[in-house]
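Input (structure):
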């Protein structure tokens, strides 16, 4: 392999089994070398990754210029650690070994930008916790890719919740009536960059991908911390109590499995998850109930086989204040576009509307053109289209933030504490869901 030029950052990609690894490269970055060094086993996952890089390089609008250098062999991990042609490794793929990959990269002096989840069970959490300490001791950056922070309705939900004249105080809630809820619905069959997504068979094995409460739930827990306790470090040993967790399967027929994977039969490692009708039970669904400094939160993850006609992955969220509730909905009524609503909890409606007007005016310097329209229960926030950039574009924003941390030489303390707290919640939920 050729060695990189003298730019600040050179990416390596290890075992890119998920399309998120390619989405990090959908854009170029001023401080990142155009050479990218890929270490992976040969096979369709590597081919799909390279095809996406080529697609980004050859597009007519803002093409990238990535120059992939590929090592494909069974000893891909050892070769990356021996050669180390880059200083940052991007991880997105099979999660069975991801925590191990993270630990070995940090032990070898390599910064890590990893897709979620970075750990999928209590054992992985223990290794991740120790690895985070090693990274801090050695001045290395370890961060996961939290794209949902960059979705505009979530940003505005956070912003408006920080205006006490409008929102009031955050409610405490209860186990049966949480103060903040985040629900996410995903689909196994979907389109990415305009093409049907082919998922590898291991994606349907929760011992390799992780269950829903250990995978997608990381985004939702992250948002609860990020919105309710902005830039405030959370001590997972003192501030959090995981109260309850459940798990349930999505059932797939062999025909559905074939359509998503292109594989003709269930592989042997999935036989443990087949029922008597030869249907696959994928434990991708679940709920977690927990408190953070006494505030009750709930996260819920659902995986369906395929979205309804015209539909897509959806998100629901509610934050309950003493004066208003802030609600995000993304169903058929919203044309499957995330939409933020303000619902008053007090009788003085003119006062709430006045405070909403003031809050949006104060946000106009960052988000020009914000407005609202009345509906039967309150108001819908009107957001200019320029801020609705889409999920795939958020990967560039996450990567830019990571590169900024690299430039500063550290990740903020609150980020590190809350990252650890997030995986504490998912690992405890994994344990509780089996009790």
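Output (sequence):
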């Amino acid at each position: 392999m050729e060695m990189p030029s003298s730019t600040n950052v050179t990416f390596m990609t290890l075992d890119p089994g998920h399309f998120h690894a390619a989405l990090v490269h959908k854009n170029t970055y001023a401080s990142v070398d155009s050479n990218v060094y890929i270490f992976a086993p040969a096979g369709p996952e590597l081919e799909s990754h390279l095809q996406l890089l080529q697609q980004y390089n050859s597009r007519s609008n803002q093409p990238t210029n990535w120059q992939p250098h590929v090592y494909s062999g069974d000893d891909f991990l050892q070769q990356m650690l021996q050669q180390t042609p880059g200083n940052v490794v991007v991880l997105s793929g099979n999660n069975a070994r991801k925590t191990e990959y993270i630990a070995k990269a940090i032990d070898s002096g390599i910064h890590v930008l990893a897709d979620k989840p970075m750990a999928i069970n209590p054992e992985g959490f223990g290794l991740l916790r120790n690895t985070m300490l090693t990274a801090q001791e050695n001045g290395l950056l370890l961060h996961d890719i939290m794209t949902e922070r960059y979705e505009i309705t979530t940003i505005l939900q956070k912003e408006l919740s920080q205006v006490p004249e409008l929102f009031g105080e955050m409610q405490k809630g209860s186990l049966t009536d949480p103060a903040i809820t985040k629900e996410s619905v995903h689909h196994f069959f979907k389109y990415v960059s305009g093409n049907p997504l082919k998922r590898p068979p291991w994606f349907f094995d929760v011992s390799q991908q992780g269950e829903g409460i250990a995978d997608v739930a990381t985004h939702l827990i992250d948002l609860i911390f990020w919105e309710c306790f902005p830039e405030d470090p959370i001590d997972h040993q003192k501030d959090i109590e995981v109260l309850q967790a459940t798990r349930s399967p999505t059932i797939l027929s062999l025909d559905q499995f074939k359509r998503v994977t292109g594989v003709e039969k269930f592989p042997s490692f999935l036989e443990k998850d087949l029922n008597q009708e030869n249907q696959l039970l994928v434990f991708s669904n679940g709920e977690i109930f927990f408190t953070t400094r006494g505030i009750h939160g709930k996260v819920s993850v659902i995986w369906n086989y395929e979205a309804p006609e015209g539909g897509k992955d959806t998100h629901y969220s509610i934050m309950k204040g003493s004066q208003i509730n802030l609600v995000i909905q993304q169903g058929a009524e919203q044309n499957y576009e995330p939409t933020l609503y303000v619902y008053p909890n007090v009788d003085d409606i003119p006062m709430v509307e006045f405070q909403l007007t003031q809050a949006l005016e104060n946000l106009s310097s960052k988000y020009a053109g914000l407005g609202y329209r009345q509906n039967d229960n309150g108001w819908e926030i009107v957001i200019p289209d320029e801020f609705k950039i889409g999920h795939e574009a958020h990967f560039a924003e996450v990567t830019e933030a990571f590169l900024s941390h690299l430039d500063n030489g550290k990740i903020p303390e609150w980020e590190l504490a809350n990252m650890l707290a997030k995986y504490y919640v998912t690992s405890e939920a994994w344990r509780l869901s089996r009790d």
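Notes: The first strand starts at residue 11 and ends at 14. Residues 413-432 form the longest helix (20 residues).
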